[in-house]
Amino acid sequence: MTMSVVEHEANLSLIYREANYRPGRSWRTWLIGRPLATADAAHQAIGKFVGLAVFSSDAMSSVAYGPQELMLVLAAAGAAGLNYAVPLAIGIVALLTILTLSYEQTIHAYPGGGGAYIVARDNLGELPAQIAGAALLTDYILTVAVSISSGVAQITSAFPHLYAYRVEIAVVLVVLIMTINLRGVKESGAIFAAPTYFFLGMAFLTVIVGLARYLTGNLGMVPNPPELELMHGAQGLTLFLLLRAFASGTTSLTGVEAISNGIPAFREPRSRNAGRTLIWMSFILGSLLLGITFLAHQTGAVPSDSGETVISQLARTAYGTRGAIYLATIVSTTLILIMAANTSFADFPRLSALAAADGFLPRQLTYKGSRLVFSRGIMALAGIAALLIIGFKASVSALIPLYAVGVFLSFTLSQTGMARRWWRAGHLKPGDEVAGHGSTLRYEPGWQTKLVVNAIGAACTLIVMIVFAVTKFSGGAWIIVVLVPTLVLIFFRIHAHYKHLARQLSLEDYGAAPRMRRHRVILPIGGVHRGSLAALSYATALSEDVTAVYVALDPAEAKKVQDRWETWGEGVRLIVLDSPYRLLIEPLLAYIDQIDAQRQSNETITIVVPQFVPKHWWSNALHTQTALTLRTALMFRRGIVITNVPYQVD
Amino acid sequence: MTMSVVEHEANLSLIYREANYRPGRSWRTWLIGRPLATADAAHQAIGKFVGLAVFSSDAMSSVAYGPQELMLVLAAAGAAGLNYAVPLAIGIVALLTILTLSYEQTIHAYPGGGGAYIVARDNLGELPAQIAGAALLTDYILTVAVSISSGVAQITSAFPHLYAYRVEIAVVLVVLIMTINLRGVKESGAIFAAPTYFFLGMAFLTVIVGLARYLTGNLGMVPNPPELELMHGAQGLTLFLLLRAFASGTTSLTGVEAISNGIPAFREPRSRNAGRTLIWMSFILGSLLLGITFLAHQTGAVPSDSGETVISQLARTAYGTRGAIYLATIVSTTLILIMAANTSFADFPRLSALAAADGFLPRQLTYKGSRLVFSRGIMALAGIAALLIIGFKASVSALIPLYAVGVFLSFTLSQTGMARRWWRAGHLKPGDEVAGHGSTLRYEPGWQTKLVVNAIGAACTLIVMIVFAVTKFSGGAWIIVVLVPTLVLIFFRIHAHYKHLARQLSLEDYGAAPRMRRHRVILPIGGVHRGSLAALSYATALSEDVTAVYVALDPAEAKKVQDRWETWGEGVRLIVLDSPYRLLIEPLLAYIDQIDAQRQSNETITIVVPQFVPKHWWSNALHTQTALTLRTALMFRRGIVITNVPYQVD
Questions:
Q1: Which residues from A are below 8 Å from B544, CB to CB?
Q2: pTM of model > 0.80
Q3: What tens digit of pLDDT does each residue of B91-103 get?
Q4: B214 and B311 fall within a common domain
Q5: What is the ipTM of this complex?
Q6: Would the N or C end of chain B have less CB density within 10 A of its end CB?
Q7: Cβ separation of B12 and A650 shorter than 8 Å?
Q8: Residue B121 in contact with residue B414, Cβ under 8 Å?
Q9: Is residue A465 part of a domain?
Q10: Which residues from chain B sit within 8 angstroms of residue A572, using beta carbons?
């Protein structure tokens, strides 16, 4: 009314930079740190040293339970079974080598982050990508549950009377790690670097001391080992048993893919830094795996689920004491296990944000919180993992069968995708380029070798996955076999919803917004007073077609309202709804329904609701919240606009 | 736009009788019965027979704990103390007689319901009335807690192993009585008549059999009485002890005022019916009180808080057996005690509705539910009483000290008010009339006698109240001494709020509603699509001064929105708010604050919020509820109108 069309257009492209708003200090600031501006994002990148700590704690820590779970299966066949521990460990390290070579190629091909999800999407299509996504997300959750449970098992090895509180301790730890991660990746990297290197130091020390004493012939056996508990009763030494043991042992390989997902967190040159970090990690992991399995076998360590851990038995045998150095080993193992969960906290939110950006998960997951991390993903992960821990009573052996099917499924899809990529690259002319989702495809010299490497990787991981799914099926792997397809189905339904919505809201083939021809205004009043008259004045400014509505609980009161309206109602018609059952909202809704049914096309109905705004919050209790109830009831009605006109008392 | 002013006026007085709306069947219908229309109210009145049951169960049932609590105090002074039981009981019956005479006069003077609240209001003023109200409401709550706890004590006398579950049983019973009362007074009257008369029959039978055996000399002593437990250790027989015992005994008189509060529930002639019912009730109560105390003393019954009740000991001594007739006595006593709480459920909601109508309690309490009862008052009473029972672990002796101070305070105020009334009536000229709150004041022949009766009543109840407050102060009466003034303070604050509000909303000295001079419309958009364009079309129909606002989390996205707005925005200016901390709501609120600060008088600001309405409830999880959050944040802003324009997808 005061601004001309020319002024409008002059203002059209104005960028309004908000200078007034500064985030306040609150309990959230105290807990997770001051908010970070979007422009600060680049400073959050990490180097190889911190990168190894952030992305490898999952893989590294699995030496604490991998060999033990392997031996636990073999122990069912007695000493003859346990003799296979070292050969099986060598097989696992061979698999690790293949995986590392495969993933090193992936990292260079996908410098923007090359997790199984992206690689499958780029090379295999939408369905394999969503299968990989579902498998990985499931696996990240299980990583948190397994590592935390195993960390708590270390604690209860040293302090057996804490065994009764293992679930509570585990849940508290999950919440703690969640909070650390909500502060942001760089700070959590610093927090995690020290314990990771502490663990590596102690683990190598234990292995080296053990080997030295073995070579000098004075290592001896574990004194007072825990009693042998058989998971499935005494069994013969069958191929099935060996395969199951191998499958249990491969849980040590989970986490190898973490770096390929996390490339964007690395400092430039990202691919190079990430690749080097991967090779270092695999080398360390392989040595520890072999060393620990060999020494455990030599010292006759007894695998146990609820008793002392193999690591604990090994450390006290190697050091020949339960002194400070033994305790340091246990403490460092506990720390790495607890913090292994951190790898999932780095990857789960990133992957879910990726899938959400593609429209397969709720969009809210793409939202970066005040500390530039995907805070909703972090909280979702913590919540689900805590539920799992509670459900499985923090038992590592109960959780292990669920683990690794997902991760090997994603390994297979990723390697298959890479193999297909090299095939396509080999058939391009040099100089041609094909744009993909996360990288550009070019002719690659030596593509045949790369194809073979990834194809072998795909074949091996496929075999391991099948072995795992079959041998652990009844033990819990069936849950994952059911869950992954279900998740994929849900992802596609979510995708269909967003696609449908986008089509419906699209402005293609959209002429102009339909003009409002008729505007009907309904004004429910609870009496005739300054508040309702203010709403009346607003309503009459909206349209000439205003109807005031009063619900009569008491005929005498209704008569009074009518008389007063005659004086103050400005000639607007008043409809009195008789309410024999003393209900307020229901007759009003029935009336609105009736008006709505008569509505013509291009007619808009607006309900103008006078809303009392009390000065003190407590006075809310002294008023029926009719406006609120009405709004809730009408909120989701199509084509009915609801307007609240507040009136306040000083 | 389509209706002329003439049509408006023709429609002005149209009464629209709602014929379409019929209340549906639901779980509420199943629980509390079909809704009753307001016109059905008259049919709910009750006669003397049902009235005695509804309003006297409180008073009657107190014979089950009054004598016991009296003896419990006396027992501290041994056999010498217990010798005073019968004389003290005679004193209590004398007090009952005075009270009955006083209240009989009140009932006839206040045929519309003459509780202490109304009488004090009419004759003494607002402050005494509110004190009486606070005292009575407190007392009704305590009645529920004490009777239910005492009823449960009867059950645990017969089944001692249920003692551990007494709190749970008591709470379930409270909920049960609440539900019965939510069905409405007539039906609950029918439900309560049978047990009341069953109890009266059994109680008189026990007393008569006991007296007959006493007179024939073969009553004997209680076999195996419970062990004596001293509440305050062994004490000398002091006046203080006797007064405390008397005070404990007077808890039997609570409930005498119930009928005077409930007169409107009686059938016409109300006063006459109510008066007769009162006299009958007092006669029955007095006889039982004396009979039970006398027999308990003769048989050497031992009062006990957590062991067997006096009634139980008396019944098995009188009948000489623990057979069917003993069990019938216990069952009937239990029933009457549990149902005694019903008197409070009849009176508390009525009194609170009365106080609410006067503006001293939240107005919602005046609202009659679908079954024509004050449902909110009923639920409030049940809730608070349940909390009390839980807090005091359902112990009668712990609750007794809180009891009766309130009721005797209200007795005193009521009788003082009546005395003042007769004084005023006596000084009117015959034929003169003075209109009061609940009755009309006329000259009354014989006013002197009536004045003396009520004055004696006032004096006696005042003394008892002081005795009670002093002797039970440290035992718990202090809670009431603190609570009642606090409640009165709260009542007056509520009253001030309503008075202030009425003044502020009053149309006196109100010229005309201020015309809206400028109308500024702000349209927050999350993107440019059919939904936001529908809201834009609505916004431009409201005013020419429309500003669209977009919060930019990502500069690239913001650029896209700006470009699209250039095409589709109909020349409306778009303001882009930069949000460096990736917050959505906060920058918007800061912007609105800024606009609000520049607002001129007579300018209205409307925020038009496009609101996505999903087809399935579950798809809500896939959208950020920005519209909802924004509404909540702005709801209570003065002078800012909020409009939701829904857009829905098929």
A1: 1, 3
A2: no
A3: 999 999 999 998 9
A4: yes
A5: 0.71
A6: C
A7: no
A8: no
A9: yes
A10: 8
